[in-house]
Structure formats: structure tokens, C-alpha cells
Amino acid sequence: MDLSLDLICRAQHRLRGLVHRTPLIHSRAISEHLGAPTYLKLECLQKTGSFKPRGAFNRMLEMSAEERKRGVVAVSGGNHAQGVAYAARHLGIAATICMPASTPRNYLDATRGYGGCVVLCPDIRAAFAETARLQNEGRVLVHPFDDPFVAAGQGTVGLEILEDLPGATRIYVSIGGGGFIGGVASAVRAIKPEAEIIGVETHGADAMSQSLAAGKLVELPAITSIARTLGAPKASDFTYRLVRDLVREVVVVEDAEAVRALFLLLERTKHLTEPAASCCLAAAHRQRAQFTAQDQIVLVLCGGNVSAEDLASFHARFAPAP
User: Fold this and answer.
1) Using CA atoms, how far apart are residues 29 and 314, in angstroms rounded to an integer?
2) In angstroms, what CA-CA distances link 153 with 20, 83, 133, 258?
3) Domain that holds residue 248
4) Of 113, 141, 169, which residue is a domain's last?
5) Domain of 114: which CATH number?
6) Which tens digits make up the pLDDT trace of 73-91?
7) Closest by Cα among 35, 50, 72, 41 to 187
8) For 285-314, b where at least 16 C-beta lie within 10 A, e where not — what string?
9) For the whole prediction, is pTM greater than 0.85?
10) What digits encode the pLDDT tens for the residues 206-224?
11) CB neighbours of 311 closer than 8 A, spacing ≥ 6?
12) CA gap 51, 56 in Å, rounded
């Protein structure tokens, strides 16, 4: 199934009342930092702290009554787990989530708190394998990105951006597996073809940029970035094609840049983001020489699920020397 504007608009209609229509705010501080009018799409204020419930709800609302009885299974390093568990509980569906053993406690606690049954696996590859086994037993897969209905739910973010800011010229979106940026780009480019979508990854979680450079899907041997929620070891044919065809470029930033951007956003805007979101500011900062006064920059801050322990660790590892 193609990811059409109609599919995304249908998702927007059915998601009303189930997820927040998150704010798009102008930030004077970040505008001055980048030298162009800049707006923040605050998906960090979404239910469960990230954009993930949009796609999870949209996928499960497509399920038949018989499929709902079988329950759902998903694989996640954190945010997708919470989104699936939250949506499943709301819809009365049993949810099993396979997660790497290295997943931070705050993600595990939140997923269980939303009613999800967590299965811990040695690493993300093992989590994908266990998910496939449970799917073969009958559970319905809610894939984190390789699903048009999931991507259509995420694409509602793009519709909201253009509704609130029709003049948006450059939109920075993080890439994990590519479903989020694929959905946003599909919505935005269908309505405003001249708008530029810029993808962002962190070094060590850059499967999409490596795939684009190789002209084929590349699987990472391991995820080494601190941006764990960007930790898909491999994109899919579906998301690869969307990014290749709709995204202007993919910028890869270092963890240290993402962390500096995280603390800048926290200190200047009072919004807590995770590195998978703050990396968008880091990428925009790299490209600020390209901006003009006529630009209207949008940074999609996709999530804010970071623990106090994480913040302390980030500061200790990446804070500049006095």
C-alpha cells in the first residue's frame, strides 16, 4: 500500500480525541541562535512523551475484531513500546513488547505502567527475532516503522505543521527506521512540494544515511549512539524509498552536538527533549549559514523521554570544559 495524502488525512480524522494536537511555537531564543525564524513542534508533549501513539493507534484501529482478540506484539528500544502499550490499553488489546536488556529503567517502567507485557532480550536484534516468533504464534505485529498505517499516523504531524505554519520552508525531522520522517514528508510534500524536509541521524545510529550512500539497505552491526530511540539497525524498503524520494538530505550529527542542543533547548525554552529530538537543532545549527530571513524553520522535537540519570550522564560526558 502506498502512503498517500488521503491515508494520512484519514488517520488525522480517526485520531482526534485519542492523541494531543501538539503546539507549534515560535522560539525567539532559538531563532536568534540560528539566525532565522524558528518554530518548535512539541511532540515531546504528546501522550507518552513522544509521537509514537499516533502510529500505534492508527495501526490498531485498522485491526479486525478477531485480530484484536489475538493481541499485538511490537519491538522497541523505548518510545514505540510506550506508544503501543498506551494505545492497546485504551482499545482493550493485550500488548507484548520485546525490548533490549539495555533499555533504561524509565522506559521499562512506563511501558509496564501502560499495561504492556515486556519481554527483555539480549539486544535489539534478539528483540526483533523474538517479535517474529511471537507474530508466528498469532499475535499481530505493530511494526515501529515498516507499515503504511503506522507511517500515516505519524504523518499527521506534517499536516498539523502546515495548518499552523503554511509558510514553513525547512522542516527538520529525526530518523530512526524512517516511518516518522516518511509520514511527515509524504504529508508536507503533497501539500507544499517546495518545502524542504531534512532528515537527521546521529553517528552510530545512521542506518538511513549509510543506505542512501550505498544505494541499498545497510544494516548496522550495532547501535553505538546515545540516541537510543533512533536505534533501528536497518531501515526497510518502504521507508528507504520514502526518504530517497521525498527528503532533501540526511544530516548526521555527533552525540556531543545533540547533547549540547538538548541543554540549550532545556535552558532557553524550558522543554526537555531526548537526543533523538535535540539532534534536529544540532543539524539546523550546522546549516544556519544557508538560512535567510525569508525562511521559516521548523524543528520537530519528537520526544522527551529522558531520565534524570541520563541527563546527569550526558552532562558528565559531554559538557564543555570550564
Assistant:
1) 22
2) 12, 12, 26, 26
3) 5-51+147-318
4) 141
5) 3.40.50.1100
6) 999 878 999 999 999 999 9
7) 41
8) beeeeebeeebbbbbbbbbbbbeeebeeeb
9) yes
10) 999 999 999 999 999 888 8
11) none
12) 10
